[in-house]
Amino acid sequence: MKHFLLTKFVFLVFSMGVLFAQDRTVSGTVTDFGSSNPLPGVTVQVKGGDGVITDINGRYRINVPNEEAILVFSSIGYLSDEVRVGARSVIDIDLVENIEQLSEVIVVGYGTQLKQDLTGNIAKVSGKDMENIPVPSVEGALQGRAAGVFVESGNGKVGQGMKVRVRGAASVSGDNQPLYVVDGVIITSDNLSGVGAATNPLADINFNDIESMEVLKDASATAIYGSRGANGVIVITTKSGKSGQTQYNFNAQYGASSPTRLRNFVQGEDYTMLIREAAANADRVENDDFWVGFVDSRIDLFRGGTEPGSTNSDWQREAFQDARFQQYDFSANGGDEKTRFYISGQYTDQDGILIKNNLERISGRLKLEHKASERVSLGMNMSLSRTVNNRVAPDNEFANPMQLVAQPPITPIRNEFGELNDRPITPYYNGLVEAEFADFVTTVFRNISKVYADIQITPELKFHSQVGVDILTQNEDRFQASNTLAGIAADNTGVGLSRWVQVSNYINTNYLNYQKVVGRSVIDATLGFEYQDIRRDFTRVQGQGIPNDDLRKLASAADITVGRSDLIQTRFVSYFARINYKLADKYLISLNNRYDGSSRFGADNRFGFFPSASVGWIASDEGFLSGVESLSFLKPRVSYGLAGNAAIGDYTHFGLYEAASLAGVPGLRPFQVANPDLGWETTAQLNAGIDFGFFNDRITGEIDYYKKVTNDLLLAVPIPNTSGFNSVSSNLGSVENEGIEFVLNTQNISRQNFSWNSSFNIAFNRNIVTSIGDQEIIDTGAGRYMNVVQEGSPLGAFLGAEYAGVDPATGDAIWFLNREVRDGETTVTVDGREATNNFNSAEFVILGDPNADYFGGFNNNFTFGNFDLTVFLQWVGGFQIHRAGDGFMGGNQDWVDNQLASQLDRWQQPGDITDIPEARFGLLNGQQQRSSRYLSDGDYLRLKTVSFGYTFPKSFTDRISVRTARVYVQGQNLLTFTNYDGWDPEVTTDFLASNVFQSIDFYSAPQARTYTVGLSIGF
Fold it and tell me: What count of other Cβ atoms lies within 10 Å of the Cβ of residue 305?
């Protein structure tokens, strides 16, 4: 009630402006002369007096003193116009573009601004740049197109979670993903999978419906979102209807995908030779004859009764399928001056490159806007989708198709009866059994909708109120038949799992916007209140003892082994304000703040205040630069402010108990120690940038320097075991990100029959953990994985032994000591440094950084006659990847796994110079994975997208009674230039992916190379 009263009070205070309104009112719409699109942000001023600014639909209302009044219409990027009012009450006007000035409308938090007026840093990606790209989610379409926004698809599975980092990672335990806002609704974007690897909630959104995506990066832009802005904010605006005759658009595309890269493995004869040699070497070292006999018996077993040399199975090829892609889009939009609509539908069916992997989505959107009166506008925006994702097992399971490469090439895939060979004929579980006799399906139903009203209280004051919902229902069903790995473990019966989760996300937003022109000053102020309630319901049931493999639901299970349900509820209450001030069209000031309260934090720190301030100066309008003819625009700007991170556990601050039983008697036991002082992670960010334009804006761009310091990290701090607990969540520690971003847009050639435009961006970021409290290091790698959190090093830095190569005299793997030699210790000198063949004697050191030093993209658009061509390059550099799976497939035949062809270059006799140690079966000669032996540079340059199209001339389309028609072909991930030794350098294994565990390749599928052909028709 108190929140309602406060909102009402603010509303009444602003409404006092009504008392001073004049009797004579003029209204109208300002549009672009060339496109007839409405123009927001246009200043409409009574000459010599005050003025107003057009809204997002180009509409305005202004009080005038009399019929002799003259209205002046002005906007950066357009030629000003003056109109005498006369007896008219409605004045519509078209403004002509002024190519000498750079102008673009940018969607900001709770409003819009002209790009020239921005004092913060916001990257805009047009929906046109993302249309029809054959990727399943919006982040994939964003990759490489916005400076400072790092996007990584961890592997080639469709429907998987994706990593997005805006200006680096700032949290150790909290979420580092940005906040997503769709048409003003803060949506659910976190992983909801409880079965294996992460799923991607953003895969439910049809990005062909997107008009633009704005990435809010600095504090001036993100502070308006307060406690959730520290990781950046991605604002998605969907397409709207346009007044006029109804226009219909249809698009169909078909395609196929294949792996971007395959690895070379040894063939059957080489495998037999190598494993026998490894056994003989092991017996020599141990002065025994056990391993030769053991290996010979395994070779006979693995052949499955076939003759020696008769089988050479390509298990890697078995992991992949002929991946097909088809997508159909339909939309219609139109309306009149009072009512506009946009309606769309899409069907997508995309196979992953891995067997049994597929994503199918059907979605629809309805957007209505209605001007109920001169003062009131109403609207609704509703999207519904159903996504079915046929998934494969996480990377660390033998059921994952990529782990088929471990099977020996001498093992036939099927026996003489056509049945799949499995253990003991295969040394490991045959993942093809999983593909034929198991199902793993995730089905998501999604409703993202809102209704809203805009009330023009006075010509200067508008009230906006909306109610939004995001209801996501996800069902995960997994069935494994009696002959699968899980089924055999369950006494040769089928096993099943069903997990249901529903997230009900309700959000109410109310704000007042005041826009006033007073002489040479323009004031734009926003004051608002927001309330969000998020409820997460979970139910999980597991069972076994399913007697028939055709019965694939838990109703048939004889034994329900797990039955559990949970409820988590989160609430946010927020007050926000912003004031933008512009003087003489060149001096700019912006103040933002948000006061947030969250149920996720302790009673002593439940509310947080997140302010920011920024200034800008359009220096190109100053007289002293008027003589620089080549300079068309120059604006330096500076911002500083705070934003927070609330993406932690919901009840982390509470002292909790959990249900327990002793001898069948139910009870409770302590589970978590309380910390009422738990509060926000807070990120302070400084940004200094400059926007520029040259040669009538044929060259435009931005250069930005930023420094982000995140304090009060949410970390689990160890406490004495005598307390009954291992740790308590506390605020301590800090992470720093510092970087430079550069954007350059050019109109290289602009002729009637030929044009060439380019857009280039690159970002450099340095990430350092500056403090983790009293802890020296956080290391949870469990002996195999190298990512750690250590003061003075990047987040997730690789810590391990430094590989020195192979001792040419003995074939031993050796590591640099990285410490003083102890008395009696035997070492080898390599390049003047001491090395040892005892892995446990080598001092662990920081070996590499999983965070990219730089990344970016370069897009080129060509038109020649009716043809168009787009070529887009994307790159990432300055980071390393841990090839954790190579410890098995690149381990110089330490065990029975098939080996990479590179292992044939092993050490064989004294004097051999190689990095591959002598093959010794079962003796770990260099296979220790926590070593730089399995660390590679991950730098890559990718020919990301090439699209070539032809638009049919109007003379042809008129004959077939259509408005437009275009055919096109395009390719995605066509070429990858890299020295990386694995399948693909864009990788983080899915079962580990987190803030700390990054850039790990453990049997992770490569990215998909996709070719499509399409047809677009408008009528």
Answer: 11
pLDDT digits 0-9 by tens, 233-249: 999 999 999 888 999 99
Integer Cα distance of 202 and 505 in angstroms: 15
Owner of token pair 């069902």: 475
HSE, CB side, 13 Å, CA atoms: give it for residue 313: 25
> Cα 778–783–785 angle (5° rounding)?
70
Question: Rounded CA gap, 458 and 140, in Å?
Answer: 43
Q: What is the pLDDT of residue 782?
A: 62
The answer to whether 694 and 734 have CB atoms below 8 angstroms apart is: no
Bridge partners, 839 (sequence order) = none
**pLDDT, tens digit, 9 for 90 and up, residues 876-905:** 999 999 999 999 999 999 999 999 999 999
What's the rounded Cα separation, in Å, for the pair 442 and 224? Answer: 35
Buried b (16+ CB within 10 A) or exposed e, 901-935: ebbbebbeeeeeeeebbbbbbbbebbbbbbbbbbb
**pLDDT tier at 103, thresholds 50, 70, 90:** low
Residue 476 CB-half CA count within 13 A: 21
CA of 453: how far to CAs of 225, 338, 351, 381, in Å?
Answer: 21, 14, 42, 12
- 624, exposed or middle or buried, with CB in 10 Å at 0-12, 13-18, 19+? exposed
CB 484 within 8 A of CB 434: yes
**Strands annotated E in 828-879:** 828-830, 833-836, 845-848, 854-864, 867-877
CB 767 within 8 A of CB 795: yes
Question: 496 falls in which pLDDT band (50, 70, 90)?
Answer: very high
Strand partners, 1018: 249, 964
Helix, coil or strand: residue 377: strand
DSSP string, 317-357: HHTB--EEEEEEEEEEEEE-SSEEEEEEEEEEEEE-SBTT-
Q: Which positions ≥6 away from 471 have C-beta within 8 Å?
A: 446, 447, 502, 503, 504, 505
**Any bridge partners for residue 868, and if so which?**
863, 949
d(CA 134, CA 327): 9
588-603: pLDDT as tens digits: 999 999 999 999 888 8
Q: Which residues make beta-bridge pairs with 811?
A: none
With beta carbons less than 8 A apart as the criterion, state whether 241 and 369 touch.
yes
Candidates 372, 370, 371, 346; CA nearest to 360 is 346
CA atoms within 13 A of residue 346's CA, in its CB half-sphere: 29
Report the range out of 337-341, 516-520, 876-880 with the highest average pLDDT.
Answer: 876-880
| pLDDT at res. 728 | 80
Q: Per-residue pLDDT tens for 857-871?
A: 999 999 999 999 999
* CA count, 13 A, side-chain hemisphere, 558: 9
- As a whole number, mean pLDDT of residues 512-535 equals 95
What pLDDT is stored for residue 8 in this prediction?
Answer: 41
Structure token digits, residue 40: 């927001």
Instruction: Collect all residues with Cβ–Cβ distance below 8 Å to 975 and sequence separation of at least 6.
Output: 942, 943
Contact at 8 Å (CB) between 438 and 479? yes
Pairing verdict, β 727-731 and 179-182: unpaired
Question: What pLDDT, on the 0 to 100 scale, is given for residue 2?
Answer: 43
Q: Which residue bears the tokens 């659910």?
A: 188
CA 869 to centroid of chain Cα atoms: 27
| Residue listed under structure tokens 């100053």 | 622
The tokens describing 381, both together, are 């925006």
Looking at the predicted structure, is the pLDDT value of residue 101 above 70?
no
pLDDT for residue 155 is more than 70? yes
Whole-number Cα distances in Å, 124 to 173, 660, 744? 29, 52, 13
Which position has the higher pLDDT, 976 or 196?
976
Q: Give 690-718 pLDDT, tens digit per residue.
A: 999 999 899 999 999 999 999 998 887 77
Mean pLDDT across the chain, nearest whole number? 91
| CA-closest candidate to residue 220, choices 594, 556, 582, 512 | 594
